[in-house]
Design brief:
Blueprint: H1 2-10, E1 14-16, E2 28-30, H2 32-51, E3 56-58, H3 68-73, H4 75-78, E4 80-85, E5 93-95, H5 96-102, E6 121-124, E7 128-130, E8 140-142, H6 148-153, H7 155-162, E9 168-177, E10 192-202, H8 207-224, E11 232-236, E12 248-256, E13 259-270, H9 272-281, E14 287-288, E15 295-296, E16 299-306, H10 307-318, E17 319-324, E18 327-332, E19 343-347, H11 354-365, E20 371-373, H12 379-389, E21 393-397, H13 399-404, E22 406-411, E23 417-421, H14 422-434
Parallel strand pairs: 3-9, 19-20, 19-21
Antiparallel strand pairs: 1-2, 4-5, 4-6, 7-8, 9-10, 10-16, 11-12, 12-13, 13-16, 14-15, 17-18, 21-22, 22-23
The structure holds glycyl-adenosine-5'-phosphate (GAP).
Length: 435
Amino acid sequence: MEKIVALCKRRGFIFQSSEIYGGLASTYDYGHYGVLLKQNVKNEWWKSLIQERDDIVALDAAILMHPRTWEASGHLEGFSDPLVQCLGKCKRRWRADHLREAQPEGELKCPECDGDLSEPKQFNLMFETHMGPVADEGAKIYLRPETAQGIFVNFKNVLGFARKKPPFGIAQAGKSFRNEITPGNFIFRTREFEQMELEFFVPPDEAEQWYRYWREERFGWYKQLGIREEKLRLRDHDADELSHYSSGTADVEYEFPMGFSELEGIANRGDFDLTRHQEFSGQKMDYVDTATGERYIPHVIEPSAGADRATLAFLVDAYDEEEVEGRERVVVRLHPRLAPVKAAVLPLVNKDGQPERAREIYEELRKVMPAEFDTGGSIGKRYRRQDEIGTPWGVTVDHQTMEDGTVTLRDRDTLEQVRMPAGEVGPELAARLAA
Ligand code: GAP
């Protein structure tokens, strides 16, 4: 993980937030390549749900929601973790359930200084703030701890315009906030993060079948974007792990440097959410089939992923070190569709008209894909930089280009170089990206 953190800083993917003030714990800022990578992760998620199928519609609800939402959802009452504090030297706070996993037997001890621990207290993870100028109880609102509730409260609005009937889904990606007791492992667990959530509404008797379907579908999404299969697993929750609303949950887990951990949860939420919002709002939340007159509250299958967590998994999985001709090479083998930059156009030397010709090729290429033009430093140094930001292809302009119009196309992973006419590079790379 330290190598990933160092690479992210060195190459402008991710920085510690407010670093000049000493940093804000477990909060991160995305730099240029990090923004592009995370955006590509989200784009692939949207594409798989919206472009490649026609039973899901998009939504972008506000982060601030009516406080009754969180009463109905159960978050005000139950969205808490058991907090213990060290009574010894370090006074640090821990999640009792996490400590129990690491210390399965006997009395829990502080992992930092081996001190005794306080009795567990439930700690609500929602961030509170106030709406308007008076910070009294009546003005209290919350930063949403999940995007899902924005979807449930809009169920009727969407049903009204989307001409959909169950089974159909509503997808939303956006920021969520949780005052985590023990954030950590870089961007794996932070207090501000992005979720990509789908709520898939189905007739009650189809819930199990759709739950099985989405487990497989979402597992396949990570594989298809290049994550090695042996690093992924689908783990069913035991009965005592299930949330209050769930009759079945499975996690897609990835083997991060700290071990297998959750990437995404797929839950069968039953009719819990819509029923609760119907109860708390007094508004009907059922679906009426105009053809048959049948009326029911749909059940919900929810694949809920983290955009930052997925970005971390793609980076960790892609990171590689190898020796090439006696020198160490760090290479980030991101799937081309996720790579922030698809191709770098590089003149071999900064003279003899090569930079000008390379610039022309770059101007053509960037009309069809994100590309970079780089003249800074030796060709080896420029390749190393592109390898570290995961650029799958390098287009090199050399003396032969000036004679016969061909360039070399370098493959990031195999290091193979092939010559081809400069005009063929764009269509060739576009075809490879689409494959
Ligand atoms: N609506 C259901 C829900 O929010 P969750 O398992 O609490 O379920 C879903 O969260 C996903 O959101 C997780 O699998 C993870 O990818 C991401 N996530 C949750 N808490 C996070 C945190 N503190 N930091 C980064 N990602 C987080």
